[in-house]
């Protein structure tokens, strides 16, 4: 590659700044918690209740006043979970079950395995500390305390936490609507017979899966013919219904690559050609939707690995920004020892690696064929090892890795 060619490739940081420039979170909507998995909170949630709402037993056993430990006590009460608490007098104990409300006056619970039952009495061991096996009211959450921050993506634990407050609806950002366009006359849908020169569309289901994982709703998919008018028509249709238009293929320099020209007739091409591998001809731009609303455009290169890596590096932070989710701005990073040797030219290389975790540390095992047409390299890829431009890596060197087992 000549130096003038290299100089025309935009560095990753410039591309991300261009991508995210002026992007604001989408409007807020109220959503039933049952349908809010993966959605991003638009406002903080404050706890209204103590959790647990009352002192209760952590064990099936016997509740008592700890001063009465070491004695044989009459079993005066039976407290099942869900029953209201009663008063326990000194010199007595209560049969209690896990989650049962601690009787008033009792301050500890001894598990039943440590108790000898003799008729209506229980022989309690002596060494029972006050407070043992009692889960205090408000130990998990205190009423009035912050429960979840704005920008939290609702996962299993967060949904459980909301339900623990009796909450059934939350304010979340609207899911970004995405149109997914597949360019290339050689690309056909799985299910149809394959003629000479054709290949199946692997990018569409792959990207749909990633887009949904990143919180988007794919509202339109189209196969775009390799012609200026066909490409323009599909882009126009997409901009009518989507917040983000993603295309694959047709962004390189060939005569059948119509995406950039079509985009420029409808909107703006903000950036094209990056100093990254894979993904060099990636194109970023903007169009207008109904009423002049901004519609973002990301043109991913057609090679399946370029599309896959481009989705992690660009679609994820963009969808995060559209949903107000700061934790999606960057992939988690970790250092690992390479098991490979490589060297880079002017482009930063994002190598697909499997990570092996051992007590001595983490190793990055590179897939043997890192060509951007080889989608098998993504199958077991836990991470992308980032090899900066003009860099030599030898086995054993530390490489920075971007963790992909996330949303
Ligand atoms: N003369 C040059 N040629 C190319 C350059 C260059 O700088 N100069 N760059 C190369 C690089 S790097 C890439 S990446 C590709 C990207 O080109 P396009 O984005 O225009 O992609 P296409 O040519 O349309 O397709 C590339 C490749 O991927 C296959 N493909 C496309 N879509 C799909 C799909 N949905 N499912 C499966 N496979 C798909 C397509 O058949 C091609 O084989 O350009 C290089 N060329
Ligand atoms: O940028 Mo291309 O993705 O190197 O093959």
TrEMBL record:
Keywords: Magnesium, Metal-binding, Molybdenum, Molybdenum cofactor biosynthesis, Transferase. It catalyses: adenylyl-molybdopterin + molybdate = Mo-molybdopterin + AMP + H(+). Pathway: Cofactor biosynthesis; molybdopterin biosynthesis. Its EC number is 2.10.1.1. Its cofactor is Mg(2+). It comes from Halomonas litopenaei. Transmembrane segments: none annotated. This is Molybdopterin molybdenumtransferase. The keyword Acetylation does not apply. SMART domains: MoCF_biosynth. InterPro entries: MoaB/Mog-like_dom_sf, MoaB/Mog_dom, MoCF_biosynth_CS, MoeA-like, MoeA_C_domain_IV, MoeA_C_domain_IV_sf, MoeA_linker/N, MoeA_linker/N_sf. Residues 179-321 form the MoaB/Mog domain. It holds the Pfam family MoeA_N. Catalyzes the insertion of molybdate into adenylated molybdopterin with the concomitant release of AMP. Belongs to the MoeA family.
């Amino acid at each position: 590659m000549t130096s003038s060619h290299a100089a025309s490739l935009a560095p990753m940081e410039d591309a991300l700044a261009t991508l995210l420039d002026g992007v604001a979170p989408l409007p807020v909507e109220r959503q039933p918690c049952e349908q809010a998995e993966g959605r991003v909170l638009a406002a903080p949630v404050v706890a209204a209740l103590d959790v647990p709402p009352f002192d209760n037993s952590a064990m099936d056993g016997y509740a008592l006043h700890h001063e009465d430990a070491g004695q044989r006590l009459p079993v005066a009460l039976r407290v099942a979970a869900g029953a209201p608490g009663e008063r326990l007098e000194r010199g007595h104990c209560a049969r209690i079950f896990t989650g049962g409300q601690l009787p008033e006056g009792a301050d500890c619970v001894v598990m039943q395995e440590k108790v000898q039952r003799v008729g209506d009495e229980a022989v309690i061991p002596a060494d029972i500390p006050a407070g043992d096996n009692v889960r205090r009211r408000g130990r998990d959450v205190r009423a009035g305390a912050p429960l979840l921050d704005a920008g939290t993506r609702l996962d299993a634990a967060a949904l459980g936490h909301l339900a623990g407050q009796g909450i059934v609806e939350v304010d979340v950002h609207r899911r970004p609507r995405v149109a997914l366009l597949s360019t290339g006359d050689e690309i056909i849908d799985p299910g149809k017979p394959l003629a000479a020169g054709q290949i199946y569309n692997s990018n569409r289901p792959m990207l749909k899966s990633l887009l949904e994982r990143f919180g988007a709703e794919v509202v339109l998919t189209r196969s775009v013919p390799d012609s200026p008018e066909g490409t323009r028509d599909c882009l126009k249709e997409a901009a009518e219904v989507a917040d983000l238009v993603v295309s694959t293929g047709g962004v390189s320099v060939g005569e059948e690559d119509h995406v950039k020209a079509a985009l420029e007739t409808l909107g703006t091409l903000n950036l094209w050609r990056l100093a990254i591998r894979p993904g060099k001809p990636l194109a970023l731009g903007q169009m207008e939707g109904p009423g002049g609303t901004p519609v973002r455009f990301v043109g991913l290169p057609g090679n399946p690995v370029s599309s896959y890596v481009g989705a992690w590096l660009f679609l994820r932070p963009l969808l995060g920004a559209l949903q107000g989710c700061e934790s999606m701005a960057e992939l988690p990073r970790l250092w690992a020892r390479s098991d490979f040797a490589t060297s880079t030219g002017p482009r930063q290389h994002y190598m697909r690696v499997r990570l092996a975790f051992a007590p001595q540390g983490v190793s990055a095992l590179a897939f043997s064929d890192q060509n951007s047409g080889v989608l098998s390299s993504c199958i077991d890829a836990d991470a992308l090892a980032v090899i900066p431009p003009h860099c030599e890596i030898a086995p054993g060197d530390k490489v920075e890795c971007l963790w992909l087992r996330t949303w």
